[in-house]
Amino acid sequence: MERVALVTAGTTGLGRAITKTLLRAGYGVVATSRRVAADEDPDPPGKDGHLLVARWDSSDRDTDPAVIEEALLHFGRLDALVLNAGPYYRTPVSVADTSDGVFAAMLEGNLSAPFRLIRAALPTLRAGSHPRVVTVGYVGAGSALGWPQRGAYASAKAGLAALTRTLAEEERHRGVTANMVCPSDIRTHDKTSTEPTPDRPVGADVARLIRFLLDPEADHLTGQVLELAFAPGSGAAQAGVAIPVPARQRAVGSVVRPNGWPTPVPVEEARLDGDEWRYRVRTGDTTAWVGERDLAGEVETP
Fold first, then answer.
1. How far, in Å, CA of 250 to CA of 273, rounded?
2. Is domain 4-238 classified as CATH 1.10.10.920?
3. For residues 257 and 133, which has the higher predicted lDDT (pLDDT)?
4. What is the mean pLDDT of residues 211-231?
5. Spatial separation of the C-alpha atoms in residues 181 and 179, rounded to whole Å
6. Is the pLDDT of residue 243 over 60?
């Protein structure tokens, strides 16, 4: 084991894919969780001490220095910090209707907590070899693009991008690099996947990019906000509005069942409508365009 990385929220979702990818690359990994259960294991057994699941809670300031200390006690070193954790408010809400509580929670979890953990980890990182910090944002965060109905989350992630770039400049002379990875929308069941697919990005794609940024040979790649799987030059982006492109497009010919339809039908055509893929389907003499929310069941391979 030559390097050790701390991955926040590293036992579930996208963090699980990052943890598994780093373990398979030979890293020691501290995967944090709000709770540490006996059965919580983000990777199959056989890592022989390469994995430590440790408690870290973005709302509990005392866990910031505690998790760094626990990492050092277990591994004796810490080379990288991957700030993957960050709450997302799933209910679309305008700025006018966003409560103080929701806005504060988005700022706390996505900006304040990463700031505190970076600050706590810096003395240890500086003392190591080829120290790395990687944050996770969303498509458009680096340009502070507006995201309708997601203003609180977008504001926090844009702030995190600015913090990442500031850290890169301030710590450059100490050898610390800091970069942000901004994936487009990845479906929940694809976030933990470590198997690449030809038609959509999955957790493994984000994890491989992060692994590259953590590499000791990436010394001069810093202050970057890297976007993964989105359509550059879109009209929305040019207008200053972020519309993350859904990562998954159902293939023409795939079989779906619209809600309320008695039988599955094939997708005849697909088009991107704003931030949602829509599909033309037909039953008898009836033709309809349906979106993801109109479908029941998963894609079937034709």
1. 14
2. no
3. 133
4. 89
5. 7
6. no
CA angle, 31 as apex, 38 and 185 as ends, to 5°?
115
Instruction: Name residue 115's amino acid.
Output: F
Q: How many CB atoms lie within 10 A of CB 215?
A: 14
Mean pLDDT for the chain overall: 86
Token pair for residue 275? 């931030």
Query: In the chain, where are the structural domains located?
Result: 4-238, 255-300
> 71-87 pLDDT, tens per residue?
999 999 999 999 999 99
For residues 97 and 46, give the distance between their C-alpha atoms in angstroms, rounded to a whole number. 49
How far apart, in Å, are the Cα atoms of 144 and each of 138, 141, 158, 188? 10, 5, 5, 25
The tokens for 293 are 């929310």
d(CA 225, CA 1): 29
Rounded to an integer, what distance in angstroms lies between the CA atom of residue 214 and that of residue 222?
A: 11
Query: Residue 25 in contact with residue 1, Cβ under 8 Å?
Result: no
pTM score of the predicted model:
0.77
Please give the full DSSP string across the chain, using - where no structure is assigned: ---EEEETTTTSHHHHHHHHHHHHTT-EEEEEESS--TT--SS-S--TT-EEEEE--TT-TTHHHHHHHHHHHHHS---EEEE-------S-B-GGG--HHHHHHHHIIIIIHHHHHHHHHHHHHHTSSS-EEEEE--TTGGGT-B-TTBHHHHHHHHHHHHHHHHHHHHHGGGT-EEEEEEE----HHHHT--S--SSS--HHHHHHHHHHHHSTT-TT--S-EEEES--TT-HHHHTTB--PPPS--PPTT-EEEETT-SS-EE--EEEEETTEEEEEEEETTEEEEEEGGGEEEEEE--
Sign of CA dihedral 110, 112, 118, 120: negative
